[in-house]
Amino acid sequence: MILSDLIGPDSISLQLQASDKAEVIEELSELLIKGCPRLCEAIDRSEVLDLLMERELLAATSIGNGIAVPHASSAKLESPCAAFGRSVPGIEFAALDGRPCHFFVALLSPISKPQLHLKTLSRIGRILIQEPVRRSLMTSSTPREAWDALKAGDQFIDMALKRQDSP
Predict the structure, then answer these.
(1) What is the residue range of 146's domain?
(2) pLDDT in tens, 21-63
(3) C or N: which end of the chain has fewer Cβ atoms within 10 Å?
(4) Whole-model pTM?
């Protein structure tokens, strides 16, 4: 799953207004609805928020290095949807490393495709763990620039995987 195929410029915010975890998830829910029109056909706004909040209550979704990936699955979805948000000052998100999070990717996937969900989560982590990608995302001034940074991260991962598969 290519991250830049899941996240379009319409589902990117470079100025999250949130000051806490619940507000981040609210904003990301709105970005999912805005950027994934097919999502609105399957799930209403309040259900998107509830899914992400319920999952977050089970365990924090921050992965360190200023990254959090709130995610959930639903039986009502046929394909995954994602959104990206950035907070320059950072937001406390119960990260294991104790640092605030700056980069947030919300992911909703079909419950019928758990492997796809896990592979997509893995890809998000692989992309965002790259310092050059995070640096580009932090300095992006438009959603298109942020999308380009995510796409470059996708391409880097694809090249690395091809090298790994080569004899």
Answers:
(1) 3-165
(2) 999 999 999 999 998 877 767 888 899 999 999 999 998 899 9
(3) C
(4) 0.93
